[in-house]
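Protein Record: Sequence and Backbone Structure Tokens
======================================================

Structure line: whole-number tokens from a learned vocabulary of local backbone shapes, matched to residues.

Purpose: to set a sequence beside its fold so the mapping can be learned.

___
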Amino acid sequence: MVSQVVSRFANQTRITDPEEYRYAYETLPNTVPELVRVVQGLFLHVFWAQRYGAAPNGEQETHVQARTVSRILDVTLDIDSSPLTAKRPFEKRFMGNCRDFSVTLCSMLRYKGIPARARCGFGGYFLPDHFEDHWITEYWNGSRWVSVDAQLDGLQRKVLRIDFDPEDMPKGKFVPASDAWLLCRSGRQDPNKFGILDMYGLWFIRGNLLRELAALNDAEMLPWDVWGSMNTPMQDLTQTDYRLLDNMAKALVEDSQEVHRLYASEPGLRVPQNMMVAGM
């Protein structure tokens, strides 16, 4: 029997709901590996395009601003109205990022009645001794949450020398922002190893921590969205602020109901309603 805590993640959110494109899901396959292949045939990661011998055009460069899965599907089907199961040529793909792969797979899994959720954190398999800003999908297999990185197709697995199963990742390969926060706060990890490009450090981890919390509370936001307490400079954080962030991270790691209570009770953690519909 699926617990109430798990079953809530079988429901679509404002972000993952395919809305008027629900019909496009009718021909989707039923297994997780097959759904991962479908997602990989629809997207091309904007940072990896050159590796595939592709170059994003002006329109494709705007794709990453699509906030909702319904908008992603709108763009995808406008470019090519073929069934979603048809692998697109690179010039007809949605040019997205890790978050787009993750929320779309999450949406498809939920459509199939499988509890799923997008997680914000850091991948430890992109650069040596570094944890790259990243999103993955988790789904409930009946007894545990399984971590899936739908972005890692054959080419990326080869280039990155991936030695694990991207569709059932061992713990520690992907580090949720909550784990990263607690590791760095305890001195067990260097916060400067967490980030992307020239953006890194505890302030960056804090941003992903709030995005991780929001994603588990029906608000899978864009990687660069900023709201509420994220706007407070790190040097201005009080002991009370740090205590709240520590408690939030612990609740996320423990996967407790406190995740939802904190989000509901702390205004600085909640995503403003106007941000839920803004974007491309």
Remarks:
- The longest strand covers residues 131-140.
- The beta strands are 43-45, 94-96, 116-123, 131-140, 145-148, 174-176, 194-196, 199-200.
